[in-house]
Amino acid sequence: MDIDPDRLDWAHLRSFLATAETASLSGAARKLGLTQPTLSRQVAALEENLSVLLFERVGRGLELTDAGRELLVHTKDMGAAAQRLAMTATAQRSDIGGKVRITASDIFATIFLPKIVVEIRKRAPGLSIEIVATNDISDLMRREADIAIRNVRPEQPDLVARLAREAKGCFYASNEYLARRGTPKTRAELATHDWISFGSEAQMVAYLNSIDVPITLDAFKVGSESGVVSWELARAGMGISPMDSIVGDADRSMERLLPGDLEIMYPVWLVTHREVHTSPRIRLVFDILAEALSDKGSV
């Protein structure tokens, strides 16, 4: 028997989505603010309506069936659409105004944030946005910013963090530098080249040594506390520099070194104050940033 899509209940689908994401009825109930019996009834009603089994209990947790995994793909799309609808409706409220300060590293603030701010302004023209380019998480604690984009999850209990995406970093040198010095073919050969520091040279040496790149402090000939400056030094042919793969691969004057071998995955966290739950303007910007930074977003 065919299923009438008009009879599908979004509340039931939402309960299914939360259960699939948490692999737990109790976790899903907490996430949605429901009692566990209510959530269980909604999932059961969806299974009855669809005439399929969506979950199997494995130990203390739940696992999706094949039918559940297939339904989850489409339900995630529905959830994302519902989120965009809610953000659009919120943005149209006449009382959504004022300033929101976003802090990010200078690289991120320079290259990624401007086009996201364009989208924020389209959705919420009553807002004004200020970008604070800094690598210091303490600016949130000092209330110098409302939202931070960082690569380390904060430990302060007064902050709320959401993992936005896993990004990829690689190592690059300019075409001019490689023509002059040769292209390294192994991690050991990287130690014979000039390097550009970004921040602490000692920390860079310790990290690179831990991934079998045997450089020493002597390898660093130039550097800066600024990621933008360090990258420009690399573009000027001064040596090897790390960079987000989206930025590095888009620059035709630069070449990725040891492609497919030397790659670093790192998290991108969205961080804000707990008042995100009570401030419509901060919640709106936080959600737009999360959407843009996700794997399906514009970054």
From TrEMBL:
The keyword Transcription regulation applies. GO terms for biological process: DNA-templated transcription. GO terms for molecular function: DNA-binding transcription factor activity; sequence-specific DNA binding. It comes from the Bacteria. Keywords: DNA-binding, Transcription, Transcription regulation. The keyword ATP-binding does not apply. InterPro entries: LysR-type_TF_proteobact-type (IPR058163), LysR_HTH_N (IPR000847), LysR_subst-bd (IPR005119), WH-like_DNA-bd_sf (IPR036388), WH_DNA-bd_sf (IPR036390). Belongs to the LysR transcriptional regulatory family. This is HTH-type transcriptional regulator CynR. It comes from Octadecabacter temperatus.
